[in-house]
Amino acid sequence: MNDEKFVEVKNLKKVYDNGHEAIKDVSFSVKKGDLVCLLGPSGCGKTTILNMLAGLLNPSSGDILFDGKSVVNVAPKDRQIGYVFQNYALYPHMTVLQNVMFPLTVGKQKMPKDEARKIAEKYMATTQITELADQKPGNLSGGQQQRVAIARALVQQPKILLMDEPLSNLDARLRLKIREEIRALVKNVGITTLFVTHDQEEALSIGDKIILFNNGVIQQDDLGQNFYLEPNNYFVANFVGNPVIDNFKVTVKDGKVTGSDFELNVADLDQNRFKRELTDGEYTLSVRPENILPAPEGHVSAKVDDVELIGRERILKFTHDGVQARSLVNLEVPIKAGDNINLKMRLDRVFLFTKEGERVY
Ligand SMILES: Nc1ncnc2c1ncn2[C@@H]1O[C@H](COP(=O)(O)OP(=O)(O)O)[C@@H](O)[C@H]1O
Ligand SMILES: [Mg+2]
């Protein structure tokens, strides 16, 4: 038994029959009881990974271990997995109670109806759908259907819960509420959960850790805050954050970092943050909007194009060298569209990326 690696994926690859390499060489592990988010843009391979974990799809190579034992040759029904599909996949002709009971009433381990009903009722109470017992799925809202799908995934007391974009069919407000409920529920049940989403804010809000994918490759496997503070590469820095990060083209030469109208000394950067030696050449200097702020003696001067209010903060939008950029300021900052301002970057918080996206600083 190894609780640190309750789920372990080793060098997993998937090439579909048409030759498309959907998962390239993926290794990660999930700690027992953790809720881990698999995050990434549409088409990056998230569902492919869940389907291989569930046994609905065979890997082309690599291994999957649950609790230290390889499951690649174990049938889906024997993997002790609960799966909440993206479209919920409820049985339309059955009531809510019948849907939730269903997994307990089929297969080798099928149990007497009374017993199945008792267990189903317990999970319907946990997911707060008791009053809907006699309804058909067609009469339920998206949020209610989703709870039914979760209850049905939990009745067999699986060891691992897989959820594929479970909130994507819900409206924005409900999404926020239900994501908190899902986290509370899985923590309460204590089940190890892999939660797939393309929404970075959702992942950051509920994941114990996040694994970010792109093009079938892991870009970063880390705690949420590190995606902000220590992104592995340009893709990560740009995928995570709202408002998105600002990117400026710069040239590094003779100890200077030169943008279209600003110049920094390499010596003024935090020397401990260099990943390797900074060689002369073209780079992208990226800075999060909360780390480029109005200041009398700024690095960059710009005219504010527009000001957007987001909750308690404001986004100052400006154009720099033809690129739209943003500064995230406190609500009280009295700057308005049309103002000419100077902006100062926190040099211990900027990043430098090569053209290939490698992070150098
Ligand atoms: N059965 C299939 N045959 C060929 N390509 C597929 C198949 N299923 C998915 N793909 C491709 O594999 C990639 C990953 O798909 P998927 O895992 O569904 O991504 P995600 O869930 O992250 O949106 C996509 O480019 C998709 O078009
Ligand atoms: Mg998918």
Helix percent band: 10-25%
Distinct ligands, ions and cofactors found in the model: adenosine-5'-diphosphate, magnesium ion
Low-confidence parts: none
Tell me, rounded to a whole number, the average pLDDT: 95
Question: What keywords describe this structure?
Answer:
alpha+beta; OB fold (Dihydrolipoamide Acetyltransferase, E2P); 2 domains; six-stranded mixed sheet; 8 helices; elongated; binds adenosine-5'-diphosphate; binds magnesium ion
In short:
With 361 residues, the protein is an alpha+beta fold. The chain contains 8 helices and 20 strands.
Task: Provide an overview of this structure.
The chain is elongated, with a radius of gyration of 24 Å. It has 361 residues and is α+β, with helices and mostly antiparallel strands. Helices cover 22% and strands 33% of the residues. The strands form four sheets. Strands 6-7-8-3-9-10 form a six-stranded mixed sheet, with helices on both faces. The chain has a five-stranded antiparallel sheet with strand order 13-12-11-14-20. Helix 3 (113-126) packs across helix 4. It starts with 6 loop residues before the first strand and ends in an 8-residue tail after the last strand. It has helices spanning 46-54, 96-101, 113-126, 142-154, 172-189, 200-206, 224-229, 234-239; strands spanning 7-15, 21-30, 35-39, 61-66, 69-70, 81-84, 160-164, 192-197, 209-214, 217-222, 246-253, 256-258, 263-265, 281-287, 292-294, 300-310, 313-320, 323-330, 340-345, 351-353. It folds into two domains: 3-238, 3-Layer(aba) Sandwich (Rossmann fold), CATH 3.40.50; 243-353, Beta Barrel (OB fold (Dihydrolipoamide Acetyltransferase, E2P)). The protein is built from eight helices and 20 strands. Adenosine-5'-diphosphate (ADP) is lined by residues 16, 18, 20, 22, 40, 42-48.
